[in-house]
Design goal:
One of its GO terms (molecular function) is polysaccharide transmembrane transporter activity. Residues 133-168 form the Soluble ligand binding domain. Residues 179-359 form the AprE-like long alpha-helical hairpin domain. It comes from Phyllobacterium bourgognense. This protein is α+β, with helices and mostly antiparallel strands. It has 3 domains: 46-130, wza like fold (2-Layer Sandwich), CATH 3.30.1950.10; 134-163 and 386-421, Outer membrane lipoprotein wza domain like (Outer membrane lipoprotein wza fold like, Roll); 171-377, no CATH class. It has helices at 6-10, 19-36, 100-115, 153-159, 170-203, 221-286, 292-372, and strands at 52-61, 66-69, 75-78, 84-87, 91-94, 122-129, 133-137, 143-145, 388-396, 399-405, 416-421. Strands 8-7-11-9-10 form a 5-stranded mixed β-sheet, with helices on one face. Strands 1, 2, 3 and 6 form a 4-stranded antiparallel β-sheet that branches. The chain has a two-stranded antiparallel ribbon with strand order 4-5. The chain starts with 5 loop residues before the first helix and ends in a 5-residue tail after the last strand. Mean pLDDT is 78; it is low at 1-42 and 379-384.
Amino acid sequence: MTPISPSSVCSGMPSGFTAATRWFFYGCLLLLMMLFAPAAHAADYALGPMDKVTIRVVEWQTAEGAFREWPTITGDYRVGPSGTLSLPFAGEIAAGGKTTSEIAKEIATNLRQKLGLSDLPEASVEISEFRPIFVSGDVQTPGKYAFEPEMTVLKAVSLAGGMPRTAGQRFERDYFNARGDYDVIVAEHDRAVVKLARLQAELANEQEIKVPDNLIEKSNAKRLIDDEMAIMRTRKNSLDLQISGLNDLKTLYTNEISSLEKKMGVQNRQLDLTRKQLNSIGGLADQGLVVNSRLLGLQTSVADMEGKLLDLDTASLRAKQEISKSTQSETDLDNERKAELATEMQATQAALDESNFKLQMNKNLMTEALVSAPAALGRGNGSDPVVMQYSIVRNSNGKTEETTADEGTILLPGDVVKVKIDTERS
């Protein structure tokens, strides 16, 4: 039999499989597509104007027995000012306030209704670019900036250049910029530390991630561990599903071998009986007591049975070969996983080394700035430190609200960060 692979599934299953077997592997493929779809923190995020999404549609072609992607619809789309997505065939989709999964279901339903499809197509929607945030007020470069998950007020102000550069505030600005960069690098460093711990746990086939010693006292340690645990579980489920599929395939071939062996046993018994009958009348045929047509018929039956036995033996050998291939594929999956983990660990360790260097550099920059601006820490000539006041303007449910914030406040896409220097205190 022809070995099964993802490419052979997409181009049509081998004809030797039953309908039930083919549908089993189609189901496995769909589950794999779901597992490899972007998971993430944005699963419950409600889309809004200026968000950019990547849409993919795959349809099962019953007549051809294959999956086909819709290139006309697949691509990147941006949510319009009115909160809608305009798609070929699917039409206008109201995306504002909906999650990606809700939009995917609506796209699939619209396509089926409008095109009269017998099967519901599979649609996936992934956020490729969030709507930007805006920084205004007392910053060096007010304007629009790309949003990133877990973005804080401090990071947004750092992107905007920090405090405006004036003669009296230059060194304070240098200090706060260096401190802002330092805090951002610390966050990236912590994430890399936890990622390395997750990779080590995966390589050791452990079920939990050990909290690194240098993060035990940090308040964000649990959140970072939970994020990496979610990734680890997803990757493990994906691997388990692939191995389960290979094991099920080996079970199918094992059952087929058992069935072939039973057929071979029956065929051998029939062959033995026919040969005995042929031997018993062989002497009579030599004496002319049995007609030659009967003798010829028995000889033909023996030849046919021997041919069928040979076919059954060949089919059994092929099934055993497929079991060996499936076992090898399982070994290859494990080897590829270990190689991938090793590569990721090297890259993560390199990122940690780089962040350590940047942390030390920013410490030096802060120290240098404080030499000329000790007031930044409330020391020196007794003056108060420069005080930054922050607020966030956010559109929620059609209403615009402004709330006070601090440097650690988490931002959402579309937020406007207002920055003001408290001149009365500074």
